[in-house]
Amino acid sequence: MLILAVDATGGAASCALAQEDVLLAESYLNIGYTHSETLLPLIEGMLHTARRTMEQVDRLAVTVGPGSFTGIRIGLATVKGLAFARGIPCVPVSALEAMAVLCPPVEGVLCPAMDARRSQVYNALFAWQEGALRRLTPDRALSVQELACELEERGLPVWLTGDGALLCAGELRQRGVCVRLAPEHMRCQRALGAALLAREAEPVDAQQIKPVYLRLPQAERERLERGEVAFHPAARDILL
After folding, report:
1. Tell me: the pLDDT tens digits for 195-214?
2. What is the 3-state secondary structure (H, E, C) of 199-230?
3. To bridge 136 with a disulfide, which of 52, 125, 201, 228 should be the other Cys (CB 3.0-4.6 Å)?
4. Residue 118 zone, left/alpha/beta (φ > 0; ψ -120 to 50; rest)
5. Are 67 and 189 in contact (CB under 8 A)?
6. pLDDT higher than 70, residue 161
7. Rounded CA separation 134/136 (Å)
């Protein structure tokens, strides 16, 4: 089974091509360009170099969030376009779980944390148990202090990864939690994690894939803080 995976939930855009358990090719770009400029050229270049075509792809995988709202939408739109054109089944993957599966099988708690601004992180907790990755919590958005309190109560070593790792490390160390930081080159999201998770997952039709934001958009939050009523378009407006 040939799997093409895509991630655009963070600052970097990436794609990966895997055949069963073998990584055939991977492209990663983190130079500040928008994903709308880089994602499709990355995919096209990777397929060309690997001497594969979209007609040979059996399954598409995409990280659906949490993360950058714009990046999530670009990743989903790209994968849906590829899937609709050729009828390829898709697997939606949590960006946090995709980061966790790339961590080595260490003892303690795997803690991927993505910077959600305002001293908050997108987070979920995982652990390696009997050679398999086990989820301990759902994906959630919470404050660094709330996360630190929860991990302090668990009393286990913590392996931090993600672009919010440094944000959490100081607070955890102040509470006496044993913290290990993933190497810097391993902290960013990579499509490879989505490809690995997609092997055993149940695929769905591309139309069923939905973004996972966990929070309201910034503009919506600011509007609520000002006490303004949010605009909800009627069905007639959407059709127009």
Report:
1. 999 999 999 999 999 999 99
2. CCCCCECHHHCCCCCCCCCHHHHHHHHCCCCC
3. 125
4. left
5. yes
6. yes
7. 6
Q: Alpha helices of the chain — where are they, by DSSP H?
A: 35-50, 69-86, 95-100, 144-154, 165-174, 191-198, 218-225, 235-239
Task: Give one word for 188, left, alpha or beta, with left for phi > 0 and alpha for psi -120 to 50.
Answer: beta
Between CA 222 and CA 231 the distance in angstroms is: 13
- Give the CA count within 13 Å in the CB-facing half-sphere of 101: 17
Evaluate whether 211 touches 73 at the Cβ level (below 8 Å). yes
CB 112 within 8 A of CB 93: no
Are the C-beta atoms of 191 and 118 separated by less than 8 Å? no
Point out which residues pair with 92 in neighbouring strands. Answer: 62
Q: What are the tokens at 52?
A: 């594969």
The pLDDT tens digits of the residues spanning 6-43 come to 999 999 999 999 998 899 999 999 998 899 999 999 99
The two tokens of residue 133 are 């990755």
Look at residues 203, 195, 158 and name the one whose alpha carbon lies nearest to residue 4.
195
In degrees rounded to 5, what are phi and psi of residue 154?
-70, -30
Scan for tokens 């919506």, then name that residue: 220
Q: Please tell me the predicted confidence (pLDDT) of residue 227.
A: 67
Q: Classify the phi-psi angles of 26: left when phi > 0, otherwise alpha if psi is within -120 to 50, otherwise beta.
A: beta
Quick one: pLDDT band at residue 229, thresholds 50, 70, 90? low
